[in-house]
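Render this sequence as a predicted structure.
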Amino acid sequence: MLDSSNVLLLHPSAPLGDFLLHPPQRPAGEILAFIHYVDEPLIAPFAAFFGEHITHRAQAAGAELLGSFVSETSPNTYPQLPVREKDRVFVWFARLTAGGEDNFLRDWRAQTGWRDSASEALLPAFMRKPEMLRLAPTARSPLR
């Protein structure tokens, strides 16, 4: 771990749950993490919306979905690690399966209308763009 100054404590969430650790369909490569900042009452509805309306769009854009997680709200029992306890997030991880990041992001951003079926109560969850992180699995990672 190169940096432990920006930590989120997470636990598996529906619709994907814990990491799907099956052998990758192609050699190890970049993994993208998308962090959606969502108010606590909207976490479950956002996760349901993700499963129903976003997963197939991500796959169509060239992503192999690996897992989804939400904020763990229990107290940090290891104070040496500065966990961001106030942020509530929904995080999903994807390995790019075809064409690399540029093609995925082009196809992902070109999709429109995906929010149209969101309830009015869920719209605040889309006010902030998700944070995207580029990750590379270590040599011993099962995601490799």
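Summary. Residues 10-76+83-135 form a domain with the Alpha-Beta Plaits fold (CATH 3.30.70.100). Residues 42 and 122 are 7 Å apart (CA to CA).
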